[in-house]
Amino acid sequence: MAKPLPKAKVLVHWLVAASVFFLFVSSWWMLSLPLPSENFTYRQLPFQLHKNVGITVLVMVVAMIAMRIIAKRQQPQSPLTRLERLADLDHLLTYFLLIACCVSGYLSSSYSGWETTLWWLIDLPNWSAENDDLNILFSDIHLWTCWALLAIVALHIGAALYHGFRNDEVIDKMFRL
Fold it and tell me: Are 20 and 57 contacting, i.e. CB atoms less than 8 angstroms apart?
């Protein structure tokens, strides 16, 4: 029988999943908006919201990693099966790509000359003056890590479907709140 997960871990998992879905959908939408000008300033709100959700995802991922480390330390160590090793690799890659997406997005924004205000309350620092080369570099990193994240998320969903069809209770523990 699958061991139940703490409610906080399940809740954060689904908050991150919903946020990542929002970030992918919002990125396609906001990039289709006209470039800002004196007449068109409404593009700032969707970009700022996208950045706010991305930074919040970064905080939640750090919390998920901490919860995972604490849980591993509390569990007796036994040899992992091949599927458990693959699941650990999937989680490790997912965390890495989520962090890479969030950090590269923030750095791209930082070097773009646009300010980032976390939830319209805290001004986050820019790393330097506007720098097109660094903005493009971090924007490219952001783009490719997001595509890689999409592939890993598809793999993650495929693994969830596999467990759902096996009816091995792995899915059940992810819906217990």
Answer: yes
pTM: 0.79
Q: Is the dihedral of CA 127, 138, 62, 92 positive or negative?
A: negative
Tell me the three-class secondary structure of 25-41, residue by residue: HHHHHHHCCCCCCCCCC
Spatial distance between the Cα atoms of 34 and 115, rounded to a whole number of angstroms: 19
CA distances from 151 to 41, 70, 101, 109 (A): 33, 28, 13, 24
Q: Render pLDDT for 161-173 as a digit per residue (tens, 0 to 9).
A: 887 787 777 777 7
Number of domains in the chain: 1
Residue 52's domain comprises: 7-34+42-76+84-173
